[in-house]
Amino acid sequence: MSTLKLLGLGMAWILASIAIAVVAAIVLTELLDVIGIVESGETSYTFAINTILLAVFVVLVLIPYLFRDRFMPAEADEPDE
Predict the structure, then answer these.
(1) Are 38 and 48 in contact (CB under 8 A)?
(2) pTM of the prediction?
(3) How far is CA 54 from the centre of its chain?
(4) Backbone dihedral region of 80: left (phi > 0), alpha (psi from -120 to 50 degrees) or beta?
(5) pLDDT in tens, 21-69
């Protein structure tokens, strides 16, 4: 795979991770608001949304690296002769 294509796919994955993390953070924080753990407009709400956003984003960005060995064919790890 060419370097340019790899960089493009990496940037696309990061942008998709941001979008997914924003949606997940909003939905989960609203669920916490409905349950009564956080209050809308308070610092707890802001803290919850930022914490969830960061956690989901980091997990999503790391997925390709964590599962690289699982999805790569065995012959890709062998050195070229």
Answers:
(1) yes
(2) 0.79
(3) 8
(4) beta
(5) 999 999 999 999 999 999 998 999 999 999 999 999 999 999 988 888 7
Place of tokens 């997940």: 24
- As a whole number of angstroms, the distance between CA 42 and CA 55 comes to 20
Of 27, 19, 16, 15, the closest CA to residue 52 belongs to 27
Strand, coil or helix: 13: helix
Which tokens in the block code for residue 3?
Answer: 């370097």
- Cα-based distances in Å from 78 to 1, 6, 68, 69, 81: 16, 20, 15, 13, 9
Amino acid at the residue 21: A
CA distance 14 to 25: 16
Structure tokens at 18: 């941001």
Sign of torsion over alpha carbons 53, 59, 62, 68: negative
